[in-house]
Amino acid sequence: MYNYTFTVFTATYNRAHTIHRVYDSLKTQTFKDFEWLIIDDGSTDDTEKIIKKWMSEANFEIRYFKKNNGGKHTAFNLGVQKANGELFLPLDSDDSCIPEALEIFDKTWNEIEDKSSFSAVTGLCRDASGELVGQKYPKDIFDSDSIELKYIHKVNGEKWGFQKTDVLKEFPFPEPKDLKLYPEAVIWNKISRKYKTRFINQTLRIYIQGEDSYTKAPIKKFAKASAIWHTSVLNDTIDYFWNNPLAFFKTAVHYTRFTFHSKTVFFSNLKNNLARFVVIMSLPVAMLVYIRDSIKG
Asked: What sign has the CA pseudo-torsion 141, 144, 147, 151?
């Protein structure tokens, strides 16, 4: 059904000045059974020209598709549909990885005996200076899911890994017409309810936080996406509340904050009484944070 072990997937938008990091990383991979699939989300720079030059000279397959700008989640959905690899590995257009990354992923995946209950292998990231980004896993080889990892084991921070392409086809991103950003973690949490991940304490990706990153954008620009994310946490993972009450209290604060900023549905979209109770208890703090945001503009 699939022609390759891996589809290395890159969604890009006006990253002609950084996407060479991905290309340079893939040229040095010790594991060769992969394709590089690029979905260009409507770039207006020289991305297409650069990619087509690489397509003529690379010793691995590069497939490039350009679409109208619709947001990374729409590019992701298209990439999953066009993937020729059994395992789908996203690599952002401003990041890179170590030469052994694909080899380590492949070896780790093949060591899993019951693959039917697993969908992913995930490793660690470092920044450009070599410092670890985020926290290590409880053990060097650790089988769990992303929800338990966060709320029971309290492991946070940037991570990197692949998902089975067939699983991603099972859980596509919604594509609301008025939203250019859809929070990825909503989908990862849904997958976590059905499949496990093998986490490994090996640093495979070099993560570079760009100047146009989500965290540096104006609050109102991504308020609706943030509201969707925090609503999802309260609706879909509230059964972990007693494992980490403080984390859910913070989520409730942000739920109110971003719901007010985006002027979307408040309170009635919560599906259970515990989530509603936590939101009510967090309201004084949430309102102070919202007022602070408004003062800062």
From this structure: negative
The pLDDT value given to residue 217: 56
**Does this model's pTM top 0.85?**
yes
DSSP structure class, residue 119: E
Q: What φ, ψ does residue 8 adopt, rounded to 5°?
A: -85, 115
Give, in order, the Cα–Cα distances in Å from 37 to each of 89, 158, 241, 269. Answer: 10, 22, 39, 37
Give the CATH superfamily of 4-213. Spore Coat Polysaccharide Biosynthesis Protein SpsA; Chain A (3.90.550.10)
Q: Quick one: which of 189, 202, 196 has its CA closest to 151?
A: 189
Taking only the tens place, the pLDDT of each residue in 37-91 is 999 999 999 999 999 999 999 999 999 999 999 999 999 999 999 999 999 999 9
* Amino acid found at 147: I
* Separation between Cα atoms, residue 26 and residue 33, nearest integer Å: 11
For residue 237, give the nearest of 274, 283, 197, 195 by alpha carbon.
Answer: 274
Using one digit for the tens of pLDDT, what is the confidence trace for 248-258? 999 999 999 99
The pLDDT of residue 209: 79
Domains of the chain, by residue range, sit at 4-213, 217-296
- DSSP 3-state assignment of 85? strand
